[in-house]
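User: Reviewer 2 asked us to show a designed sequence for the structure in our supplementary figure. I'm pasting the structure tokens here. Could you produce the per-position amino acids so we can include them in the response letter?
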């Protein structure tokens, strides 16, 4: 079952995301790019939601977050954030379930457009986004992580 974030999930989420970064020769950087994870409640729950999926033993195996853009003057938008799934669960349909949870929240909150930034190394994720109607619209250089990286910008209209 996909559940809403609870404060006791924080360390497990950080550990899971760090393990995924390490697949790509990187590591979590709580002093910069990943500092939002130190206070998930303040960074996500005031204007959005954060969900986790646990395995049968209670270990967190996936997470996803959505955050309403509060400064949008054009149309109600939200940012898809922190969409991670451990490697052994990829291809199982879990990504679709997690994504559906975020999309449902957006529809319930009258969000008409979702955007996200995704590390250029996450090619499997980019295939997922393309398959689900996201359009890649740009790239940026980032220096706020443990090492420099680039991100693609994706947008989806609901």
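Assistant: Here is a per-position design you can include in the supplement:
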């Amino acid at each position: 079952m996909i559940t809403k974030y609870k404060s006791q999930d924080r360390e497990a989420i950080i550990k899971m995301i760090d393990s995924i970064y390490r697949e790509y020769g990187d590591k979590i950087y709580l002093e910069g790019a990943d500092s939002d994870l130190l206070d998930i409640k303040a960074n996500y729950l005031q204007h959005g939601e954060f969900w986790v999926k646990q395995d049968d033993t209670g270990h967190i195996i996936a997470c996803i977050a959505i955050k309403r853009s509060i400064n949008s003057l054009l149309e109600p938008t939200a940012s898809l954030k922190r969409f991670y799934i451990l490697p052994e669960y990829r291809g199982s349909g879990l990504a679709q379930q997690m994504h559906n949870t975020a999309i449902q929240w957006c529809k319930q909150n009258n969000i008409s457009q979702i955007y996200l930034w995704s590390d250029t190394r996450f090619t499997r994720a980019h295939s997922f986004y393309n398959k689900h109607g996201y359009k890649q619209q740009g790239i940026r250089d980032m220096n706020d992580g443990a090492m420099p990286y680039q991100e693609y910008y994706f947008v989806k209209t609901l």
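For the response letter, you might also mention the following. The domain at 2-157 is CATH 3.40.630.30 (Aminopeptidase). Strands lie at 2-4, 48-54, 60-68, 77-85, 113-119, 135-142, 149-157.
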